[in-house]
Amino acid sequence: MSGTSPAHDLIRLALAIAEGRVAQSVRRTAGRAAYLAATAALVAGCALGVVGCLLTALWIYVLPHVGAVGAPLVVAAVLLVIGLGVLALMHRAARPRRAPVAADPGRAALLAELSNLGEISELVRAQKGPALIAALVAGLMAGSRDR
């Protein structure tokens, strides 16, 4: 019998099992990541091949129409358009996105306190003028704060 308590031994056993499962999960995840990277490389290679074939076909098609000098210019123009499109997409993707507005704790507390709508509706019916003015002021304040 060891000098530790049974609870301590159970905790050590549970930790050992958990570590084994974590290591197994990491191995599985690393294998999946390698598989995805290889698949992505294969797809990228195929896509480059497709683009090359399309540009070659374009060159062959326009050669009789625009001549030996015009065909490479047409293909270069297509490559320029594709490059500018990719550049625009990358520029858009690189732009920082505005973070969503965090919930204002003051608003959350106000909504929690105003959850009893029965009392509020009676108050609004009794005091229509001040309630409308308060709503107007609250709307103006909320609109000017969010800009």
Structural class: mainly alpha
Low-confidence stretches: none
Shape estimate: flat
Report on the biggest sheet: none
- The gyration radius over C-alpha positions equals 33 Å
Compute the average pLDDT: 79
Report the end-to-end length measured between terminal Cα atoms: 71 Å
- Count of folded domains: 2
- Total beta strand runs: 0
Count of alpha and pi helical runs:
4
Order of helices and strands: HHHH
The helix content, as a percent range, equals over 70%
Briefly summarize what is shown.
The chain has 4 helices and no strands.
Summarize the SSE layout with pairings.
Layout: H1 6-94, H2 105-113, H3 117-126, H4 128-145
Helix pairs in contact: 3-4
What distinguishing features does this structure have?
single chain, 147 residues, 2 domains, 0% strand, flat
Outline the structure in words.
The chain contains four helices and no strands. The protein has 147 residues and is an all-alpha fold. The protein folds into two domains: 8-93; 106-145. The radius of gyration is 33 Å and the shape is flat.
